[in-house]
Structure prediction request, 394 residues.
Amino acid sequence: MAVKVNGAGRAYARSLVAAGKVDKTSAWSWDDAKDGNALLGPDRDNWDNYGRHHLAVDSGENDKTKGHWKYPFAKGGVLYRSALVAIRDRAAQQGVDDVFDAAGALLHEIDAAKDDDKGGDGGKGSRLLTPRDQLFAQLILAGESRILAIDDARALHQAREDANAVRAPTQVAVVPLMGALFPRGRYGGSMEAFRGALAQAVANPDVGAIVLDVDSPGGTYAGTPETAAAVRAAAQVKPVTAVVDSLCASAAYYIASQAAQLVVTPSAEVGSIGTLAIHADFSQAYEREGIAVTIIRDPPFKAEGNPFEPLSDEARAHLQGDVSGATADFHRAVAQGRRVSLTKVREDFGKGRTVGAHRAVELGMADRVGSMSDVLAAARTRHAYRRRSSLAFR
Prediction:
């Protein structure tokens, strides 16, 4: 199967976005016997119309067959955002990079149009949570804590409401992502606790914006994709800005790259995109000390990669497969979050190295150089009451 982007389909999708004919909330479904045949017309021969509703083609199939056309995204003259999300996820699983990039670019156009529309909806985007917002919060909820932000030194207080004030978001929640990251934080930063704090900020109607305070060298792969997805979901509900001061590497960048905006302090470094596994072989050292280690196992791969024996070629290949698979997921997440192509992530985003602040902005790994204070000042201005500050720290 040789799948590639369908230029006619992409052009049609862009025309629907430009015309505002986009369903941004409904779940996507496609019944080829019903929906597909409707596109083909009564004589079942309108392949141009059928084809333009698909984002990709299989060049190995006849273009007058349904097998030639892949990834439908529209029906009834309406493009479905959820269809593009499904296409991007499926393309990622199948390794079809250009289709992944095409779907991501269309989602970017849709979301950009959505952001532009917010100015004329009478403040609709800043009112109390809609059922959709509540659903997003439930998706990322990972704890029962009522804490909005930060830590014992910087606890966020709820501003007192004037009895006559109009109910609207007035606070900025600052959620820390610091230290070495672990799924439950037994030895460092807890990704589970981070997701819980983030979910509470999303669910709280008084919070109008969320700022991630990032200073982390990274951590385990376990828990990272889920935490990145939580940030991505939160950014669909409220403005999320990640502020890096002063390190955002590896798993931390995987997570922070999903924020709507990524700000780096002048001396910050970001990147270290990739995955590694380390094997230490102590067998010769033990032998010199007269220590014999006997390993009894069943089945044969149990405890492979242990430090008491050399790493076999088979175990090495298995570990390399795990590492490469995790890195591919990392690349796709960064491409999605930073709204760039997979090729750009692989070739330009450091190739495993960290990158300094100004260079990161030039490459597209970050949006601008700034500081936590100016980000908070801007957020406070947008989300404050008319007569009082939105932030109070102790």
Q: What stands out?
A: Confidence is low (pLDDT under 50) at residues 118-166, 384-394. The radius of gyration is 24 Å.
